[in-house]
Amino acid sequence: MIHSASFFCLCLLLSTGVFGDEVKSVSALEGDSVTLNTDVKMQRDDQILWMFGPQESRIAEIHRQNIYIDAINTIFEKRLQMDDQTGSLIIRNIRTEHSGLYKLLIINNRGNSNKRFNVSVYAPLPVPVIISNSLNCSSTSPSSVSNCSLLCSAVNVGAVTLSWYKGNSLLSSISVSDLSISLSLPLELECLDDSYSCVVAYSFTNRTTHLSNTDLCQPCPEREERSHLSISIVVIALLLLLLAVVAGLMNCYRKRKQSGKEVKAQEEEILYADTTFCAYRVKSTDVIAADQTLYSTVKT
Ligand SMILES: *[C@@H]1O[C@H](CO)[C@@H](O)[C@H](O)[C@H]1NC(C)=O
Ligand SMILES: *[C@@H]1O[C@H](CO)[C@@H](O)[C@H](O)[C@H]1NC(C)=O
Ligand SMILES: *[C@@H]1O[C@H](CO)[C@@H](O)[C@H](O)[C@H]1NC(C)=O
Ligand SMILES: *[C@@H]1O[C@H](CO)[C@@H](O)[C@H](O)[C@H]1NC(C)=O
Predict the structure, then answer these.
(1) H or E segment at 289?
(2) Which residues neighbour 41 within 8 Å (Cβ) at sequence distance 6 or greater?
(3) Lowest mean pLDDT: which of 81-95, 149-163, 214-228?
(4) Which atom of ligand 1 is nearest to the CA of 23?
(5) Transmembrane: present as a keyword of the record (predicted)?
(6) What would you measure as the largest C-alpha separation in the chain, in angstroms?
(7) How far is the CA of 138 from the centre of ligand 4 (A)?
(8) What 3-state DSSP class applies to 21?
(9) Which of 16, 41, 36, 12 is nearest to 26 (CA)?
């Protein structure tokens, strides 16, 4: 029993790669510059070998501090580069044909280790386009006319998800597998009450189009409670302003009275009193400005 358990453990260790033979997934868009990191600091006598594809053909190597890059390899042309401190492989302007398995072999007197990178390169994401979908809605029930019908589309996509978001919450989404097709997703709103956006996404990156206030949908009318709330804010602000002005005047009056009594008062002190009053005044005008802005927003 014990024997079979330890045997099972050994098998597990072997299959999960106790010798460092892990596969790391790397996703990139065409045109990106991709770095496959060795995660080591190279020592003088280290040999680092990079291989690519099912044939595991050698594409780059550092040995005794000499860098070798396969210049004859047609699929990479002049895209490959090696970091001479770490031995990391850099692939510039990556294309879909550079998708595949990259194998790293580090050979030194401390023992060998290897690592694999599964690189997937995807076509760039198109910008999702939002259009009005209500052109032929006029024939249906009259209430739908006031609704705002939208359609978000992304052309020539594969392995993506297209989604509608309201703020940060997902409203709806649709996914396609590998086929390169055009996707679209409708959205029906009564009016625009939040920030809506359409997102086209791979698992590792995305592009977003926001539905801006002005086009396609009318903003929702202001709610009653909201304007009541705004009015009470304005009233409170006005009261605060009044208090501030009264306090400022009282302060000034007190200071002036004091300076009248003590004719010998230091000049600094009087200056100081003036400054505080000025500060008050500046502050109060700020409040007035804020009030006016608030109020006009409510009116429009
Ligand atoms: C590499 O990634 C692709 C796409 O994610 C997957 O289909 C494939 O099975 C992976 N290959 C390996 C060897 O992990
Ligand atoms: C608009 O009309 C087309 C066909 O003329 C139809 O396929 C589509 O579903 C209609 N759209 C809506 C929102 O009714
Ligand atoms: C208008 O849109 C709302 C959702 O925003 C929907 O519940 C309602 O059915 C729509 N009305 C019509 C007539 O399509
Ligand atoms: C889009 O990408 C950004 C950054 O890469 C990420 O923060 C965000 O969550 C992604 N959004 C969606 C909807 O996937």
Answers:
(1) helix 267-299
(2) 85, 86
(3) 214-228
(4) 14
(5) yes
(6) 103
(7) 37
(8) coil
(9) 36
CB 122, CB 29: distance < 8 Å: yes
Residue 96 CA to ligand 3 center (angstroms) comes to 43
Given a cut of 50, is residue 4 above it in pLDDT? Answer: no
Atom in ligand 2 nearest the alpha carbon of residue 151? 13
DSSP 45-81: T-EEEEEETTTTEEEEEEETTEEEE-SS-TTTTT-EE
Confidence of residue 178 (pLDDT cuts 50, 70, 90): confident
Entry field: residues in the chain? 300
Cβ-count burial of 155 within 10 angstroms (0-12 exposed, 13-18 middle, 19+ buried)?
A: middle
Report CA(166)–ligand 2 centroid distance (Å). 24
On the question of pLDDT at 148 being above 60, the answer is yes
- Tell which one of 136, 150, 184 to mutate to probe ligand 2, the residue whose CB is within 8 A of the most ligand atoms: 136
Residues 233-243 pLDDT 10s = 777 888 888 88
Q: 286 vs 101, 244, 254, 300, CA distance in Å?
A: 63, 12, 24, 22
- Using only C-alpha atoms, the chain has a radius of gyration, in whole angstroms, of 34
Which among 22, 25, 121 is the best mutation to test ligand 1's pocket, defined by most ligand atoms within 8 Å of the CB? 25
Which residue in the block uniquely carries the two structure tokens 């990259």? 102
Beta bridge partners of 58: 51
Q: What is the pLDDT of residues 8-37, one digit of tens each?
A: 433 333 334 444 567 999 999 999 999 999
In 3-state terms, what secondary structure has residue 90? Answer: strand
Q: Which helix (H) or strand (E) holds 16?
A: helix 2-16
Number of continuous H segments (helices) and E segments (strands) in the chain? 4, 16
Q: How many CB atoms lie within 10 A of CB 256?
A: 11
